[in-house]
Amino acid sequence: MTPLPQARANAALLTQPPSPAAPPFGGEAVGPAVSAGAWPARVVVGGVGLDPVTEDEVVRRVEAELAAGRGGHIVTPNVDICRAVAKDAALRELVGAAEVVVADGMPLVWAARMLGTPVPGRVTGADLIWSLSRLAARRGWPVYLLGGPPGAAAAAAGELAGRHPRLRVCGVDAPPYGFDATEQGRRLVRRQVVRARPRLVFVGLGFPRQDLLIGELRRELPGAWFVGCGAAIAFAAGTVSRAPRWMRRAGLEWLFRLACEPGRLARRYLVDDAPFALRLLVTARAGRLRRRSAP
Fold this sequence. Notes:
Layout: H1 7-14, E1 29-30, E2 42-45, E3 48-50, H2 55-67, E4 72-75, H3 79-87, H4 89-96, E5 100-101, H5 106-114, H6 125-139, E6 143-147, H7 152-163, E7 169-173, H8 183-196, E8 200-204, H9 209-220, E9 225-228, H10 232-237, H11 245-249, H12 253-260, H13 262-293
Parallel strand pairs: 4-5, 4-9, 6-7, 6-8, 8-9
Antiparallel strand pairs: 1-2, 2-3
Helix pairs in contact: 1-4, 1-9, 2-6, 3-4, 5-13, 8-9, 12-13
């Protein structure tokens, strides 16, 4: 995964002045991006501050904030995102500024456990698109689907509405690749979203593109919640198959996706992500052992 050109500059404009860099493999508790009552302190894993919460807790947080007229941003880091964040302070700040940051990848869950700062488990965009749509249907909040391959957003809307008949999808869009390389392209996409007036927006463009665009959209829709959801729209549409539940629980979803899309994912998973994940786990284990042996 290669950040967009000028991602550093764009991310810096969308966040507060950078805070001191997080240690790359962490474990220390840090404060959440926003005050959220009893919301627990974040723990740093792989250079990213994670909220140690369940999917149900995320849904309840979104419901409470939307009911109060407050918007937000959900990021679901995996190893690939952590690898990018570890190399780029502006992207680290972009992720850290989100109201909710939850572990998508099992290596992050394992590392957090090894560090002695466990998180309850994975909370993925592919699951949140269903649970948050259920919430939106129950509360009458319109949703918008942005991203995925051609036709995927419309197909996903049909699948979501089929499961939740009261769901109101106020818009879908699958903009062409590279639309966000120009201000005009981003403005046209933003205009469609803003006109639809959604309360909940799923943006599946891949990191950091989806999250940079979310930063721009939040200025125009401050009362909406945005989920950077990667391939979740394509999963919901059925255009991309998701791994069986047992593989997801065992941390083998990457292997299933690699088998389905070897040409696109082989380098990312085997050359880039695997060494980072191994180093993350080894470092976490070593840190835990050092703390245990300390007098």
